[in-house]
Amino acid sequence: MDFDLTPEQRDLRQRVIRFAREELGAQAAAHDRDETFDRDGWKACAEFGVLGWPVPREYGGSGLDPLTTLLACEALGYGCADNGLVFAVDNHLWACVVYLLRHGSPEQRARFLPGLVDGTLIGAHALTEPETGSDVLSLTTTAVRHGDDYVIDGAKCFISNGTIAGLYVLFARTADSGPAQQALSAFLLPRDTPGLEVRRAISKAGLRGTPMGELRLEGCRVPGANLLGAEGAGYRIFTSVIEWERGFMAASQIGRLQRLLETSVSYASSRTQFGVPIGSFQAVSHRLADLRVHLELARLMLYKVGWLKREGRIALLESAILKLFTSESLVEGALAAMRVHGARGYVADLPIEREVRDALAATTYGGTSDIQRTIIAGLSGLPEAR
Question: Are 141 and 174 spatial neighbours (Cβ–Cβ below 8 Å)?
Answer without folding.
Answer: no
